[in-house]
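Batch job 17 of 40 flagged for manual review because the log was empty.
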Amino acid sequence: MRSVIVIGGGISGLAAAWELRGTAEVTVLEGRTRVGGKLRTGTVGGITVDEGAESLMALRPEAVELAAAVGLGDALCDPAKAPVTIWTGGALRPLPAGHVMGVPTDPAALAGTGLLPPQALARVAAEEHLPAAPLTRDCSVAAYLAGRFGQEAVDRLVEPLLGGVYAGRADRLSLRAAMPRIAALAERGGPLLPALRRMRAAGAATSAPAAVRGVAGGTGRLPQAVAEASGARILTGTAARSLERLPGDRWRVRAVTGDGTLTVEADAVVLALPAFAAAELLAPHSPMAEAGLTAIPYASTAVVTMAFSRARAAFLPEGNGFLVPPVDGHTVKAVSFLSNKWAWLRSAAPDAFVLRASVGRFGEDDLPARPDRHLIRSAITELRRAMGPLGEPVAARVTRWDRGLPQYAVGHHDRVRDIREAAAKLPGLALCGAAYEGVGVAACVATGRAAARQALAAAG
């Protein structure tokens, strides 16, 4: 049986190991003391909560299907139905349904919401009368959409959603990579509004599933379930430090453990690491791959999770949470009302109201690095401004994700193509993770499984 080393025990690497079950001897090397990467659970006031991603995208099937395959099918659950809400102009304002990442399909539905002033609303509605040549090259989200709908629409409607997904900024993120459906329409030419309405009408003909799904007990349960189902040898606390090519296109990995140096050899290697970490290992073998990987920037974020007593709270908010436009100058970029959103959490902690606030966008690395007490106090202060007097939390914790989210800058697709072409010249090596074709769990699972197949094919 062929052998494969997977370097990185996040969900991408674990998905690769699972894909290889029964067809190769797999060893997963993870530098931290646990597997899962940015999928993990913790506790606040004794209540289990997700500290990283709290849901799986269901509009693409890879993550949901994997969860079912590893025994979590009965635990999959839908969030409570609620509109996307934006905190702007001193109030919480629901975003009308039918938008695509904040881009409206029906400008008339924005009237009366307070999301945009009349002049900006008129600018949005005028988009369908503007000429539009086919987009022939990548550009930033802001560069294209501001020209179509006006800058204020980008600031108030699009930026909050981009911040929630990518922790990025519209003037830096690639239209093709961050908003592929919009980019596909732009490449055909013509106004976006009529095309978006046709897209919405086509989608209305089929029953729309929930956009995301959760896992009862926390999405952080998924990595361990995948690890166990993979049958792989999982070595935590084992950080890969170098790669060496051997005769016969085999590979040797040297890793550092608490007991000293470990050397492992295999027919193939899957690098399931952040771009900057993969670049270090590939530097001696492919300067082109190293340069491309090093050029992918990252954003650091923090999550402030708080539990409030239902009995003591002056009031409890409705809905699933809200997003915040950076143009309004607040510290918090998004808030999720976990106790409203997930029925399993309400059942597990009926006397508590749990929420979490996210902090940090690209270029704001100083915010997540602030002391815990400062982040908690800032979050409480802004929650009161947005909603009213919730009272003081009975428990709170801060989780930091240093360089946690890759940024898909303009030209990202071309950069990834060049990286993959350079890596393809190294037989038996494959790349996967959030840095390439998507930051969500489903995209990471897809890249992990694809990398596993590529590695196995290269290993014969």
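Reviewer: the log was empty due to a logging misconfiguration, but the result itself is present. DSSP finds 16 helices and 20 strands in the chain. Unflagging and moving on to job 18.
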